[in-house]
């Protein structure tokens, strides 16, 4: 397993981490992701550790805490050998203060996550989304308090806009507080909008990227291609796209090239898709999920080899899209940009 420094921190993480949104299936939404229970979760944890994957990602909102509970039980006796990442911000109840990044909510949710995970510290604590109703300095001061108390090791964010992240970094620097070392973001061959602003920001500020849904909800798994409709009952079939749906022809064009590269490398379409991400700037870690052990074993084979420069360029070309303003304007003026290859 390859390990990379996570952003501007001293923490080294494996390039793959295991995501636990499939644990529990505590409501109809998460049942579509998976219903993994403790015994199978324990087996998957051991498979990951055997492969050198020692970072496990979860969130309080996954099956309303059930995923954290299952992960905590699966990690029993192993806590000193692993890194645990969890999140807060999204709604956890009906009360008016049961969501957001306020001091009240974060302290309550951090304590609840620690209890469910059966641990005394969280290695990486993410703000799952940006809360525009809470002053940024209130959120960051609260996170600094959690870090100083030893309950949180490092802080990170997820699903932020560029200005959300940049303003947060600026406030942390002003007061000497802990900075977000990573941004957990949606990024794949099918969804490259992350490159327009968030990736250049990550390069400039040395913020690492942890990629969620690297296969775009299964669209890049190899099961969907020209003339082959969505499998009935799949997660994508039940839940749809994470964001605005892409033109099917755009997807098919990407999969056509993925098929070619998969044949050349002797790898699967999913493995090629994941390996492409590992060649991208700022990407330090990719979260892989799995409904079962077979899927997990297949995803673990995405590392230990690299696509050629030519193969990367072909995949780049197949997945390229014209960006919105002002990014198309910046793409036409690359002499002013420190990373022109991104435009």
Describe the structure.
By secondary structure, the protein is α/β, with parallel strands linked by helices. The chain has 13 helices and ten strands. Helix 2 crosses helix 3, helix 2 packs parallel to helix 11 and helix 3 runs parallel beside helix 4. The mean pLDDT is 93.
Helix fraction?
Answer: 25-40%
Radius of gyration, whole Å: 20 Å
Oligomer: single chain
* Secondary-structure class: alpha/beta
Mean pLDDT: 93
User: What is the total tally of β strands?
Assistant: 10
Beta fraction:
5-15%
Strand order of the largest sheet: 3-4-5-6-7-8-9-10
**CATH-assigned homologous superfamily:** NADP-dependent oxidoreductase domain
SSE sequence, one letter per element: EEEHHEHEHEHEHEHEHHHEHHH
Which stretches are poorly predicted, pLDDT < 50 over at least 5 residues?
none
* Major sheet size, sense and barrel closure: 8 strands, parallel, barrel
Summed up, the domain count is 1
Shape: globular
Architecture per CATH nomenclature, i.e. the level-2 architecture? Alpha-Beta Barrel
CATH third-tier fold name: TIM Barrel
Total count of helical runs of at least 4 residues: 13
CATH class: Alpha Beta
């Amino acid at each position: 397993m390859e390990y990379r420094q996570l952003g501007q921190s001293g923490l080294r993480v494996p390039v793959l981490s295991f995501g636990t949104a499939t644990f529990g299936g505590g409501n109809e939404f998460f049942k579509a992701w998976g219903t993994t229970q403790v015994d199978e979760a324990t087996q998957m944890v051991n498979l990951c550790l055997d492969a050198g994957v020692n970072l496990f990602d979860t969130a309080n909102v996954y099956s309303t805490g059930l995923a954290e509970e299952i992960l905590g039980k699966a990690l029993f006796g192993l806590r000193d050998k692993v890194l645990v990442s969890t999140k807060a911000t999204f709604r956890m109840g009906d009360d008016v203060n049961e969501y957001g990044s306020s001091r009240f909510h974060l302290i309550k949710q951090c304590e609840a996550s620690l209890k469910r995970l059966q641990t005394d510290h969280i290695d990486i604590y993410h703000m799952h989304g940006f809360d525009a109703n809470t002053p940024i300095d209130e959120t960051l001061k609260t996170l600094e308090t959690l870090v100083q108390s030893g309950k949180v090791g490092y802080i990170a964010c997820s699903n932020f806009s560029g200005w959300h992240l940049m303003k947060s970094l600026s406030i942390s620097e002003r007061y000497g507080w802990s900075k977000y070392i990573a941004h957990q973001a949606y990024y794949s061959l099918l969804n490259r909008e992350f490159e327009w602003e968030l990736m250049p920001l990550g390069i400039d500020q040395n913020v690492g990227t942890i990629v969620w849904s690297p296969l775009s909800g299964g669209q890049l798994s190899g099961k969907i291609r020209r003339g082959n409709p969505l499998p009935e009952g799949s997660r994508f079939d039940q839940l749809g796209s994470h964001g605005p749906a892409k033109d099917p022809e755009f997807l098919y064009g990407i999969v056509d090239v993925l098929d070619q590269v998969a044949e050349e490398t002797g790898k699967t379409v999913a493995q090629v898709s994941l390996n492409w991400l590992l060649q991208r700037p700022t990407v330090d870690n990719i979260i892989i999920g799995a409904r079962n052990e077979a899927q997990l074993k297949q995803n673990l084979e995405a590392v230990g080899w690299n696509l050629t420069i030519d193969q990367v360029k072909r995949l780049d070309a197949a997945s390229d899209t014209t960006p919105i303003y002002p990014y198309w304007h910046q793409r036409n003026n690359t002499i002013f940009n420190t990373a022109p290859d991104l435009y």
